[in-house]
From TrEMBL, chains A, B, C:
Annotated source species: Cryptosporangium aurantiacum
Domain of life where this protein originates: Bacteria
Pfam families (UniProt xref): ECH_1 (PF00378)
A Gene Ontology molecular function term of the record: delta(3)-delta(2)-enoyl-CoA isomerase activity
Protein name: Enoyl-CoA hydratase/carnithine racemase
KW Lipid metabolism (keyword) present: yes
Length: 224, 224, 224
């Protein structure tokens, strides 16, 4: 389960030690951590990392299979998290130490910046292969954060990008060696910790108002 | 006139041996070829090439001059082809072995990927020079597929990009030597042939819904 | 105050010799210069430069402090200038010989192309630090002219880009040594002087119709 630590001005959210899929309890824990970060006084920034082979594999398809009647409600909650991170009034960096797939990759894209391990792990949007089309909101999020041909390739071919490829495609902003991903992300986040929160939140909310409208539209929360 | 061949999973559409302008009969033949590709069973991808000095020079201005009363209907049909290719549920690559101008360039941009001959031939949007402004739908298509400053330069200066320049501007995804353009495109398309068609079509349709809406709006089908 | 000169087909607008902030009289002088350029017969292009350490620092905050009741009217006028330059039916290049900050940077982004001094001066959007959020129209302008992650970094971190960094981030199209910025911009503009004005204006107006709608919406002219 997600846990929150603090390194000076930089909060470090660890998404967990397994595949870190978005179980409802996991979503609640992440939101509670974000509540704590937002409520903190003084300069602060956020780094989102994880432990082990995975950053996050996204939707909890096992839980969804057991709770098919809660599909729409679940997608609404997931998309609300994307919208929240995308407009968070706190500077934030995803420290992608392991695999980052599907809705996990979208959560990474909602962050301000991304640092990825150079030599192992993939960033991948496998939706076309697993036959789960992106919702309109998910499309809007991905299209808002990546260059046009990178979007097209990532969304239509399910290409797996290693760290170096992801940097070349401008999916991530930096790569780092094993064991240095988190530290690199923290050092990227720290100088941003003093940005005025209210202004930062307004700037992001206006930049991405079309995206958050799409993400928060329950009529678009269909994976079919 | 356009002809359709097959190389294993990869259909090869040859746009013709002259300037391959969009005469109504040419449009009908291209649409019939796309019908055949879409209706085929099993894994399949599409490569669109041509024979000789031209890939396509776009609108058939001679025919339009002789049929001025059919202008809007004609532009509607052309834009419908752009929208169809842009959201085709079949992976596709344009193999640009020769000049690719104006609406011909737009048709190339509607493809998933582009391979261009490195040493001869130009990609060019000459509309500003020939004083035929892009429709809103054409603008939306070009803006959806190229980086922002590339769009601005291409649409406002009518710059002629050779293969190497087009690669640097990220208009095309690869270049190849003379005689290897088609083979390079086929090898790029082949591994994509198994992508699930329905999901692929839904993904593209959602990604580009604003573009296809603009392309399919007859009130925007004015070249003036 | 702004002055207009002419070098053959190329008009050179000098924004002034101090910080070149947007005082209402300065706005009127710039608009009068643009009127003169637009009304000129024959081929013409525009280069916008300045004299001294600054290209422009943007909004005249001293004047605004003394005229708080005119805030909305003032922002409407500034945004009207951005919309005018963005869709100007005359090819134009910003010759950024000095600091280019805030609304000054936005005015530079409204130009077709940008040349920046390589070794001194910064391009910067400091709004997050000075706690003046971008209006929706300003957001739309910046987002229409820069790559996605460049937009995000520039708008959320207030990074100061030197010339070389601005070129790498594709904020500017070229850099030049001290004393060669203006000449480089003039030589970039000159071959474009013959572009048909009406078509060029229509092309730009359609490309950026969403941006100019946002810039011209008085209800969005709030800096708070």
């Amino acid at each position: 389960m997600p846990t929150l630590d603090r390194d000076g001005e930089v909060f470090v959210l660890d998404l967990g030690t397994d595949e870190n899929r978005f179980h409802p309890d996991w979503l609640a824990a992440v939101n509670a951590a974000l509540d704590e970060v937002e409520a903190a006084d003084g300069p602060r920034a956020l780094v989102t990392s994880a432990t082990g082979k995975f950053w996050s594999n996204g939707l909890d398809l096992d839980w969804l299979g057991a709770n098919p009647d809660r599909l729409t409600e679940y997608v609404v909650d997931v998309q609300a998290l994307f919208a929240r991170v995308l407009t968070l009034p706190v500077p934030n960096v995803a420290a992608i130490q392991g695999h980052c797939f599907a809705a996990g990759a979208m959560l990474a894209l909602a962050h301000d910046f991304r640092v990825m391990r150079a030599d192992r792990g993939f960033f991948c949007l496998p939706e076309v292969d697993i036959q789960i089309p992106f919702t309109f909101g998910m499309s809007a999020l991905i299209q808002a954060r990546l260059d046009k041909q990178t979007v097209h390739e990532a969304m239509t071919t399910a290409r797996r990008y290693g760290g170096t490829d992801a940097l070349a495609a401008r999916i991530v902003d930096a790569v780092a060696d094993e064991g240095k991903v988190l530290a690199t992300a923290v050092e990227l986040a720290r100088p941003l910790a003093g940005k005025p929160a209210a202004t930062l939140g307004t700037i992001k909310s206006r930049m991405y108002s079309d995206v958050t409208t799409a993400l928060r539209d329950p009529s678009g929360a269909s994976l079919g």
